[in-house]
Every structure is written in C-alpha cells, then in structure tokens.
Design a protein that fits this description.
The chain is an all-alpha fold. The chain is built from four helices and no strands. Helix 2 packs antiparallel against helix 4.
C-alpha cells in the first residue's frame, strides 16, 4: 500500500540511460535476467508490463 500511497500523492521522476534500460528490458522479457536485477523488474512491472515499457522505448 505504501507504494500506491506515495505514487498517488506525488509524481516520482526516475531518470534512466535509455540504451541501458532497453538492453535490460530485452533481457528481462527473454527471461535472461540476473537475480540481483529481479527487484527492478518487479518495480517496473507494477506500473506497466515489461513488453509495454519496451514498446514505449522503441517508439520514442
């Protein structure tokens, strides 16, 4: 509930290097993600499916 509460009240901006994020998302969608990056994958999945993140990056 805390994540919902904090994102509902505030806009949180996180800046990523696009090429690194693109590479990471491709690996995550293919299932080749390292266990130490699993938390980030879970965090991103709470907002949109990983494939949707990948499509948004490809379109920009």
């Amino acid at each position: 509930w805390f994540l919902w509460y904090i994102t509902h009240l505030y806009h949180i901006a996180i800046q990523f290097f696009v090429l690194d994020l693109h590479y990471y998302l491709i690996k995550a969608v293919q299932g080749n993600i390292e266990s130490k990056h699993q938390n980030f994958s879970t965090f991103m999945s709470r907002f949109h499916p990983l494939t949707q993140w990948l499509n948004m990056i490809d379109q920009s």
